Each structure stands twice: as structure tokens, then as C-alpha cells.
Cell wall-binding repeat protein
Amino acid sequence: MKHVVKGTVLAGALMLFTAAFGMTAYADKAINNVGIKVTGTINAGSLIGDERLEIKPQGSRYTVNHYEVLNEGPSWKETDVPDIKIHLQAEDGYYFRVNAASQVRIDGAEYVTATREDNAYALIVEVKLPSLARQASSINEANLTNTTASWTESLGAGSYETKWKRDGKTIGVVRTVQGTSHDVSSFFTKAGVYSFQVRGVSAQNPDFRGPWTESNDIVVTEEMASAQRAKNAAAESAGTWEANGDKWSFQLPDGSYVKSAWRKINNEWYVFDANGYVITGWFKDGDKWYYLDESGKMLHNRVTPDGYQLDINGVWVAPLAKAQ
């Protein structure tokens, strides 16, 4: 049985069947190459038609109309190799002049064949996805406590992605995590209601990710957040200053040294070079300039010894302009 799936492609992949019948295709401009990116997940045991695939055109002159699944049977089996046809539609004023495999670029799947239809205004591309055994399955449960984020295993996953929310709003960036748990207590530095989402990333094909699974909520009070900020500050300050002539380095409890990085130590910011020594004087980080005094402390919200204004974050307010 063929399963035609509509309305599950990304926003922007519009359902266009507006090519004018009877119009001569070759009066329009030719599309000589097409690209398609396929991502998503298919879970063994789920019904065929319930898969969650994202199919994006890698060009601006055509859209993804819909796709259809060619596999037979009511449910997906772990040994299945998904076989799908992707229906592309040319925008008004364009037609497909695609006749060879070299003109079709597929990311996340294997090209099988392509056929033009509807006076070359439509292109049907057949592709095969990695077998279900090489994909990442759904995560059944995600759990959050005041110290740990954990979740059940995603079969086929080589790593996991997490994203966080506070008071219903996404914070930070998507993080890649190894294993099915990690210590997150240092995250909770502001009061609010926290939760996270997690999904598996296929070990064999990183383009394929499982669906997001939502954790429970936890409440972090201001008292808890304040205590965590103090713990984070103490952890950052833990270590020993070492002198080498007139140069200073900072050794961490594990025996390593801070290198090529900023570090806040006892409420003062320092920056260390690639050899682990404190930098003094003017320092450029990205497109911003900072000033470190003779001990390496970053100055802020004041005028430097050579007469330049720094803002509250320590950034040179007006480069190459002295404070009046």
C-alpha cells in the first residue's frame, strides 16, 4: 500500500499545483539542478504514515509539495529501508530540465531516480533513507531534578541534543551531550520554572534525529538561585596562583591550568594566554577591547591609566577616543 503524506514538510514547502496546463514549458526558465535535504525520524513499530520527516528544498525556484511512502505494511519494521517519493513543484515561470542523477543532490538520503511530470513543471524524486536500524528512536521519558537531567536511551543514538526553558521561554543554545544524564545544577542561577527537551542523534547518520521529549518542570526560588551563584563563583575561584618570574598562572584543582580563556576568580575577571599566563594591559577579544591592570584584573566602569573610558562590562566605550 502506498501512503501519501501531506502537510508534514517544513513551513515554506507550499502545496502548489498552479502550473498552467497547455503552456509551453520551454518558454519558461529551466531549473537544471535540484537539491533536497531530508531529516527526521521513523520509529520501528509505528504506523506507516506516522513518520516525522522534514524535507527542505535546497533552491529558491521550486518547493516541496508532498511526499509518499512506498513501503508496504501497516507498521514500520526495524529492518525496513524507507523508500519515498518526493514531489517537487516549479515556481511560476520555471520548469525542470533534470535528466541525470548528477543534476540531483540529496542530503540525508540516497538518490534512486527522478521523473518529470505535468509538462516538466513537476519533478518526482525517489530516495531511500537509512534503514531504521541506523536511526535514533524516540526517548520514552525525560526527568529533571535540582541537580540532574536524565532520560531513557534512544536506540541507535550516538549522542543527544538538549535545549532548555525557563518560565516557558527557550534559554541558551541547543547542547550536544554524550550519555543519558548529566549534572545541571550550575544552570540554575536565576529564579524561575525550568524544564528541558531532549532527542537522540543517529550514530550512523547525524542528519536523522528523534523527536523531542519534554521533561517535567522544577521550580528554582531566588534563595536557591543565589546559593547556586555562590557555588559557581567558589568553583571558578578554586585553584592556586603560581608565579614564574614576573608571570602568573592559575592551577585548577585537577592539576590543569587556565589557558586561552577568561576566568572569574574571587569576583575579579582575568584573561589567560595560550601558555596559561595572565595578560595585562590592553586586550582585544573579538571586536571589543578590554584593559587589565598590572595584576591582570579587568578594569570596568572607569577611565584607564592612559585615559580611555571603559563601560560597566569593561569594554572600551569609544575606540581610539580618550575620555574628556
Remarks:
- Helices lie at 222-237.
- Residues 170 and 233 are 24 Å apart (CA to CA).
- Confidence is low (pLDDT under 50) at residues 6-25.
- The longest strand covers residues 192-202.
